[in-house]
Amino acid sequence: MQLPNSFKEPVYVTRPALPDPKEVYAKIDEIWSTQWLTNIGQQHRAFESKLQAYLRAPNLSLFCNGTMALQLACQAFRLSGEVITTPFTFAATSHVLYWNNLKPVFCDIDPHTFNIDTSRLESLITPHTTAILPVHVFGYPCDTDTIQSIADRYGVRVIYDAAHCFGVEVDGQPIGNFGDIAMFSFHATKIFHTIEGGALTYKDSVLKERLELSRNFGFMGEEQIVVPGINGKMNEIQAAIGLLMLDIIKAESARRKKLTLLYRERLQDIPGIEFRQDLPHVKHNYYNFVVTIDKTEFGNSRNQLYDKLKKFNIFTRKYFYPLCSQLQCYRNLPSAAPENLPVAEHISQNVLSLPLFGGLQEDDIHRICDTIQYIQEF
Ligand SMILES: *Cc1c(COP(=O)(O)O)cnc(C)c1O
Question: Which of 10, 205, 216, 283 has its CA 20 to 30 A from that of 318?
Fold first, then answer.
């Protein structure tokens, strides 16, 4: 095989989908004419109701980012003590527990879904457990039935980190409708974004007032502050971007699906590169494309492939490495010991996210796959 041409410009793991700038300027004109920039204005109200309909959520609230949303979700349930979570996630999942004075208890993951291994869940429950915080990682749904039945048996809450899951459905059910509450992140690196932003969807409408008071310092009216809240509000520009993104998200996801199918077709014959197929009961969003490297078969470790692709101007990312349980702030927790988390340790050492975003061309995917093949053969 010939040496593939390097990309002239760096190809990053993701690029944000962007609405037409003319529409953005029109929105800014609209916001300027009202002179109302934040504090739950017209754009916020319009986005909240359109998004609630789009996600088919019984209740929905918007926040300045996903981390803040998750933090306020934990507060809304007055959680205390221990929360069982996954180490194979972005740092924010564990940090949110830390900021709520909760102790993360790490549970190993399933080797196929990379989500919490429900067969190990029950053994981690103690009298101090008040919730389970699973992540539907990379948009692949957790075993929600088993998680719910364990939570019901022990009377603990289920809070889902659905940061990767915009638009995902399981058996026709929107993924945000599982558990007590689910968090979506609208960070620019996610498939649906508002530059920064986040939302919670939840079953119990009583939570709405509590969440929205704590999102705005605890203000009830002009003069009463009824809880020690924080500033978690989504501003008008964020909400306006969200409204415009709702018009293009389907096309973005369809484009990523097409590129994902091409990746799968091209990579299936390269030894030592493994990836996941679609699940029949799931409507996927094709947020990202993740492979695992079998070093013996591929002839290079994940780290070697990552380094070599860089020389061709292809910038992949090791999501998620290191594990949260390996971060300095959590590694001394008893549940963080590597021998308790063998699958998570293994996946984290071998996983790699390849570039995937709507702006990539089919040719780019071919060139990335040619390069991977070249690295395997030589
Ligand atoms: C992005 C992300 C978050 C944090 O969301 P922000 O909107 O960036 O605060 C939390 N959890 C996971 C799994 C994420 O990928």
Answer: 283
